[in-house]
């Protein structure tokens, strides 16, 4: 009798698995039939990311200039991770280039589908015209709006946009110009800089950590720069071994600026790791190896220039803002750096900073930015230019104590996590399972 029951249960299990497989296969077929009917996209099927039923690499035709009907088009890279037609859609508004679907925290939390959108002028989303005239906040927001227009005909449930750092900025920009596109926004560690080189960042950076930690940081920087030739020789040797070259920015510039960047990077991603800073009397090769770990040379290299550095610099020094370094204690050693990160900008280009662009974003968020959750890390230097709530909206802001540029909801204490989940339940009018700690 028991054997008969086991056989029956086994047959039922196989039947259920068959029904699930059949249902998923039918959904995938239906999705591809719909995608085939959309004129402005080209797609190829990819292996689905874990937790999804299907994955697609999609190139979306976008106007270079959304305000000119005669504009040329470019193809914008989007990755679609499909779970079901009934599930919500999370749009990850990436601020740089992308390589695949990286499942966002809101996607996991909401058991959602996900669209991951590469930013215009980065990676493979390159207009033919590289003068960057149309690389700005508003054009990017219109890119995201058009993607919502296309895919909301397929996914008719709740829409959420999200991103971290520059990607979080993009989510806020999209929300500002098209607040009805999404029912909620979760912006992680997204700064709102209000100057070409925002003066709030360096004082905030210096407030982080202990005096002992700063003593080690300063000693580390001095040890590298005080014997300039030896430090540069070690830098050049390790750069060559990693395959990085710096003809665009100049290797001498890069050497000095990587040392200047070190404190910012240390706190941006560090987790009380001052003990990991090599002693100043360590061999110079050890010092440079640690420098490369904290300030990866790819961000200054020829290899990353066209796809990352040049478009980022264009945005930072025309609208988004950035920061400059306090070089007062290192100035005697510097031969090239003057402390301004505008060294990224080619000498032949004179970029004008539009201070109105980010002030417009700030004012709108202050007065009308509803259904937004802002997440920051207390030990992240970018928190210096975090959004400040005015009380005019229902937006929520959380600063993770001890968190840095990787701060997220899962790191919150239970009461904060519950507040986030409860707010999303109301805003999205849907059930959300509270993740277990």
List the helices and strands and how they pair.
Layout: H1 2-36, E1 41-46, E2 54-63, E3 73-82, E4 89-93, H2 105-110, E5 113-117, H3 137-151, E6 159-164, H4 166-177, E7 184-188, H5 201-206, H6 211-226, H7 228-242, H8 251-269, H9 284-294, H10 302-320, H11 355-368, E8 372-377, E9 396-400, H12 414-428
Parallel strand pairs: 4-5, 4-6, 6-7, 7-8, 8-9
Antiparallel strand pairs: 1-2, 2-3, 3-5
Helix pairs in contact: 3-4, 6-7, 6-8, 7-9
Describe the protein.
This protein is α/β, with parallel strands linked by helices and 437 residues long. Helix content is 42%, strand content 13%. The protein has helices at 2-36, 105-110, 137-151, 166-177, 201-206, 211-226, 228-242, 251-269, 284-294, 302-320, 355-368, 414-428, and strands spanning 41-46, 54-63, 73-82, 89-93, 113-117, 159-164, 184-188, 372-377, 396-400. It has a 9-stranded mixed sheet with strand order 1-2-3-5-4-6-7-8-9, with helices on both faces.
List keywords for this structure.
single chain, 437 residues, alpha/beta, nine-stranded mixed sheet, 12 helices, 42% helix, 13% strand
Low-pLDDT stretches are: 14-22
Reading side by side through the largest sheet, how are the strands ordered? 1-2-3-5-4-6-7-8-9
Mean of pLDDT: 92
H/E series, N to C? Answer: HEEEEHEHEHEHHHHHHHEEH
Question: Which band does the percent of strand residues land in?
Answer: 5-15%
Q: Rounded to an integer, what's the Rg over CA atoms?
A: 24 Å
Measured as a percent range, the helix fraction is 40-55%
What is the count of DSSP helices, taking H or I runs of 4+ residues? 12
The biggest beta sheet, please? Answer: 9 strands, mixed
Silhouette: globular
Number of strands: 9
Distance between the termini: 42 Å
User: Oligomeric state of the chains?
Assistant: single chain
Structural class: alpha/beta
